[in-house]
Hints:
The complex is a heterodimer of chains A (62) and B (132).
Chain A: E1 2-3, H1 5-11, H2 16-23, H3 27-34, H4 42-51, H5 56-59, E2 60-61
Antiparallel strand pairs in A: 1-2
Helix pairs in contact in A: 2-3
Chain B: H1 2-24, H2 31-59, H3 67-97, H4 102-127
Helix pairs in contact in B: 1-2, 2-4, 3-4
Amino acid sequence: MNNRIKEYRARLNLTQEDLAKxxxxxxxxxxxxxxxxxxxxxxxxxxIARVFESKIEDIFIx
Amino acid sequence: xxxxxxxxxVAALVLATVGLxxxxxxxxxxxxxxxxxxxxxLVVAFAVFIGIRRLTSAKRGExxxxxxxxxxxxxxxxxxxxISLYLWLAIMYFSDKLDYETHTIIGTGILGxxxxxxxxxLIVNFTGIxxx
Lengths: 62, 132
């Protein structure tokens, strides 16, 4: 599974730390997500999509 | 936060025990003893590293533990458990062939388990977890 978190984050001018705080995870988790080294839970995927005001399927590509 | 404080207390107790061991002994250490001290210090350093990471996260306003760190810990535990079984099997095999005292063998096994856990954590933490 790939994702477009980095791209969406850049659009909103958010740092990894900002996004981590918004979705209540550690910054390392965002780093791992962006490097495609971790597949998030449905809850986290939903939280990220909510921050970016997008659909889950737009951010996470199966 | 409680877990972090607990980890620091355990690390301090381990160091205090090692210090007590060194001061109460005659001072003539074998190579095995020195290696044991080295491994204990490495494991304590690892615990302190984890504690500092958690404190840094807490300072940044992030949770000390999240779903990734919990999964890393779960995978590390299961992986190190399997490897430790083989470690004990190897120790049992070699204990018949080598002439070591029982407490040395058990101590080696416990330290070995700690080292296996540390190595597994480093591997899992830096390679990441995929649900595929």
